[in-house]
Amino acid sequence: MRTPITLLALALLAGLARAADDSSPKALRERVAALRVEKVAWRNIPWKSCLLEGLAEARSTGKPAILWVFIDRPVDDGRC
Amino acid sequence: MFAGAAREAVFTKPEVTKRVASEFVPVALKAALVNGPPDDPEGRAYARIGRSKPAPQGICATDGYGRALVWTLGFDDGASIPKFLDHVLDLYKSHHDDHAPFATERWRRYPSTRLPDTPADPSEGDAPPRPPDSHPAGHACDGLPHVPAGTLIARVVGRALSADGTPVADTDGQERYVEDSFDLPPIAQAGFASAAAEAAGERFRIPESFSRWWVEHAYLGQLDVRPSRVDRLDLLARRTADGSFRVEGDTEASGGDATSPRDDGAVHAHRIHLTWEGFAKVEGKAVTDLVLLAQGTERVRWGNVRMEGMTSEPEVAHLMGGKAFDQDGGVRYGIEAHTAPADRVCRPGEEPATVPGGPPESLRRKMARLEGLVHGLAPDVAQQVAAMLQGLEPLARGGRFAEVEAVVDRALARAGELANSGGPSPAPGAGPTDGMEAVARRLERLHEAVHRLLEAGKTDEAIALLDTALKAFEDDAKAK
Questions:
Q1: What average pLDDT does chain B have?
Q2: Residues 6 or more apart whose Cβ sits within 8 Å of residue A73
Q3: Cβ A68–B29 below 8 Å, yes or no?
Q4: pTM for the whole thing?
Q5: Quick one: three-class SS letters along B309-378?
Q6: Does the complex come out with an ipTM higher than 0.90?
Q7: In CA terms, which of A46, B296, B349, B389 is 20 to 30 Å from B55?
């Protein structure tokens, strides 16, 4: 008679352990990392943030610079 | 809205991204610096570019000296974008060996709607001005300024969820997938550390000065729909066995009302409910590590009343108006923050002054004066000044009021020029105003006014406006 209760208690403890694992800092980091998509279309252009660096490269490579002027910080992956 | 629309409609097309990455040098610039350049060598390069801008935001091509070849605010259709890139290469071939200055082409939409060129700047003389190759030692880039030591650099990722709870696959639109970042200043971290110390092991309420930073960045959509109200902030923390702090709680944020358009016609509504969990590590007065996960529901709608009836036109034709969307459903966010690396941190002596509490009286007075000046400007002109003020809020919340005041001083100077001239004037440092430039600016404003009337279906009003301008000319011709 004790066996089903023991099994139930073990199952409950296992569930609680899994829940704790899911909420550990390591698990949270993994869940955050899983949200991020590396290959997004807009990351295919390597936008520079520094105007001087961009113009220097334009001079050294003989290419024109394309400037995307927009509101707020243009750090890569930043919201716009 | 321009930036989000440009990224989604222009800079995600495979043929465009491939060409921009290989045939050009792509640079993303803050509108605030182009519209209100600082007074340093890099600022003078910004001023040279900003001199010819047709709007506070846009797409520009320059040669390696920062001489603007062409600007555009949009395109007739998707097929026009590669043609624009071809045109840039032709202009570059024509001009890049020129010593003499040249006029800048400007387009509202390439290739159908051209704006008056900005004439060449005669003050540049016979040799192209050469911007510095790099920043002076110890001087931070204006585009990526250094932060005070101990600042947490936080990265946010947000995804809309399908009905089955899995993240949606589409990542092109910010209303479905968003990445963002923000700086969490030491002053806000100290508030959390202080509350934790006072709690002495008990559960405590997380100070709003700390939590608002991440709650306000957990939203889908572009910057324009950022929630302006935090309606509920029930976030608690408790010390765990390993000495870190577990974060839990619920938040609600909202913004817009979907009924009151802005001056530019934009209208939106936003509501977010999130349940949070996470961990924070504290060392002394600093938070050294932060990881957060939130899940909940979000409804965000964005549109522009001026674009009603234009749904048949391509998205690239209306970059300035943004793209309408209506996202409603489950959402999940992740935030990780780490202490700023050494190459992002201010050098000794470079640390900005931070002041606890509110802004000083001098700054309050200047903000009030600026508000008064801006209200007297036409909306399209006031946008130039507004663009200069972007990015100020994080500085103010970090107590960096001296830096805020420096930007406000530049905005006041610019607003004053615009108010006195009755219209746009050349950016500071761009050289003297000549008659042709004044003519070009007025033609541009007339063109803008007629275009807006036509977009709103007010053809008769557009004709009346042009008749008024032409009447003065025709009356003068008859008198002669």
A1: 84
A2: B30, B144, B181, B391
A3: yes
A4: 0.75
A5: CCCCCCHHHHHHHCCCEEEEEEEEEEEEEEECCHHHECCCCCCCCCCCCCCCHHHHHHHHHHHHHHHCCC
A6: no
A7: A46
Residue from B417, B380, B206, B186 nearest B283 by CA: B186
Q: B17 and chain A: CB distance < 8 Å anywhere?
A: yes
Q: What's the DSSP call for residue B141? A: B
Closest CA to B216 of B206, B226, B224, B207: B226
Query: Residues 29..58 of A with a Cβ closer than 8 Å to B: which?
Result: 29, 31-33, 35-37, 40-42, 44-58
- Inter-chain touch A80–B277, beta carbons under 8 Å: no
pLDDT score of B440 more than 80: no
Asked if the Cβ–Cβ distance from B179 to A29 is below 8 Å, we say no
Identify the residue whose tokens are 């704006």: B115
Measured between CB atoms, which of A33, A35, A41 is closest to B12? A41
pLDDT digits (tens, 9 = 90+) for B219-260: 999 888 889 899 999 999 999 999 999 999 999 999 987 777
Q: Which of B133, B140, B186 has its CA nearest to residue B343? A: B140
Alpha helices in B96-179 (DSSP H): none
Are the beta carbons of A65 and B53 separated by less than 8 Å? no
Q: How far apart are CA B456 and CA B310, in angstroms?
A: 10
Q: Give the H/E segment covering residue A32.
A: helix A25-35
Local structure of B161: helix, strand or coil: strand
